[in-house]
Write a structure and sequence with these properties.
With about 180 residues, the protein is mainly β. Helices cover about 10% and strands about 55% of the residues. It has one domain: AOC barrel-like (Beta Barrel). The longest helix has 20 residues. It starts with a helix and ends with a strand.
């Protein structure tokens, strides 16, 4: 009998530890990777959109992250300057994070930009989101800010040598 109660106690403690590991913390820290392509979705007339398919892991558990965002017209920027760089603001978008247990975290894009470095052959892309809700453990989440910072590298070009398919690595950080 004593062995059974010890085993039961251990199982209960392990269950509580697992629940705590995936509980909704104040800070978000994750790494992601995946790909992106141009989208057929039109978020704003005349603004090209891109779709990101990312997977990752972090302090909230394993996840997939789908992002769609539209770019504006190239502009001057002190944070992305140089003869071989191009700064493009992001003007609209949203994201949904789906966690391994099925919980969803819904995000609305508040700002972002792409800094394309033609010499390095990559872009540094930033997307800032506000949490607008979710399901499961994120059911009452809202108002926190999440920042996605990605390095995007072209891996396939069309017949005109325009990049059309990209590899993505990045981080997600912020607060709930």
């Amino acid at each position: 009998m004593k062995r059974k109660s010890i085993s039961t106690s251990i199982l209960i403690l392990l269950s509580l530890a697992a629940a705590a590991a995936y509980a909704q913390p104040g800070q978000v820290n994750m790494t992601v990777s995946g790909s992106t392509v141009n989208s057929t979705v039109s978020l704003q007339p005349g603004s090209p959109a891109g779709e990101y398919q990312l997977g990752g892991n972090g302090n909230l558990g394993p996840l997939t992250l789908r992002v769609i965002s539209a770019s504006g017209a190239p502009q001057q920027s002190s944070s992305c300057s140089g003869a071989t760089k191009l700064y493009i603001p992001v003007v609209a978008g949203a994201a949904v994070a789906r966690f391994e247990n099925g919980d969803l975290l819904k995000l609305h894009l508040t700002s972002g930009n792409d800094c394309i470095d033609f010499v390095a052959g990559q872009a540094l892309c930033t997307r800032v989101f506000q949490i607008i809700g979710g399901t499961g453990r994120f059911n009452n989440s809202s108002g926190g800010n999440i920042t996605l910072v990605m390095t995007v590298v072209p891996i396939l070009a069309d017949s005109s040598n325009n990049p059309v398919f990209f590899a993505v690595t990045g981080t997600v950080s912020g607060s709930m």
